[in-house]
């Protein structure tokens, strides 16, 4: 029913090419049949992104569609990468994709190919009542006028951003000069992992975060690596089945982080040990923390949480009351945290 050049077979060369360029999406692609509902992460559907770019990649190798190859070559000459050029074409293709898919219209291949000629051109001087530059014979305003704003070319076309806040802070990141910069992979995997964990696929989430650790190692970037390990630790702290991975991750982080960050990691380690049922061992770990860092009051607060988590509220209250009595002599963060938990424990 669809014309040639519109199909996307299950085992598909085009998709493979795109997945090698957006490798973080592979885990979602492989699991897309098992996942519930539409795969949408912060309003973006990464499967659709891969699909559209994959279709264009196939068209690019289709001897029946030489115009697609010619357009890619023309855009590459204008300074676009292969990925960005493909994405520019996908922006035109999407105008045909949904009407065909959802409204069962026939794919107007001739029109699509004519429209590819508009990519990279400037239409500021084209009057709305003039014939459309695509050559359809229809007035510009009734043909491509409203679409051409979506068809502007840029070297960043084809980038896939599923969120920000972990590796990419702010929309315009000055160091990123390519839509395939590894920072996008790293950031995207954080959101993919959250999405998978929310779907109950903790193993998938862990795999995504492991891929980030490997990527950081490959690039020999210490800040990426500690970031990736902390993401893994967060997952491990939230899911008891990840306890062993959590302990291994903490060991690695202890070698990477500054001294003032180590106390938190040691408390996390004790929490995980307690969670696996080794409560006495965890108690001893906290005693060790107090001996090595006697002035670090936040560790006492964490100990109180540990006591409460392991069913010893009376002891937790004593530790917190000691902290609260030190008002003015301990940091305000610890003081306030202790007051809040103490109130909860006394009223609960
Ligand atoms: Zn037109
Ligand atoms: Zn892309």
UniProtKB/TrEMBL annotation:
Annotated TM spans: none
InterPro entries in alphabetical order: SEC_C_motif (IPR004027), TPR-like_helical_dom_sf (IPR011990)
Stored Pfam families: SEC-C
Domain of life of the source: Bacteria
Record protein name field: SEC-C motif domain protein
Species for this entry: Thermincola potens (strain JR)
